[in-house]
Amino acid sequence: MTDCGCEKARQDLEEYLRNEVCKTEHADIKEHLATCASCRDEALVSRTLTEVVARACKETAPEELKHLVLARLRDVQATH
Q: Most buried in the list 19, 30, 45, 67, measured by CB within 10 Å?
């Protein structure tokens, strides 16, 4: 394996974090993150943001908000 470099690691970071890169690329990016504090920090921010958004998406919206959104959607659809 060879260090893939910052540009390649950052370009494929989101796919790497979602395990959507091939095994070779995964290993190269993992190796790079182990040796590059800047890219490792970026990966941590990205991973944290993804986890926060995922948790927020699991929460249920209040019923009143659901009704308001649906009513607004119906209004928009009726005018188009």
A: 30
pTM over 0.90: no
Q: Is residue 74 part of a domain?
A: yes
A 10 A CB-CB count for 27 gives 14
Residue 1 lies in a domain: no
| Count of Cβ atoms closer than 10 Å to residue 46 Cβ | 15
Domain total in the chain? 1
Percent of the chain with pLDDT over 90: 74
Domain extent at residue 20: 6-79
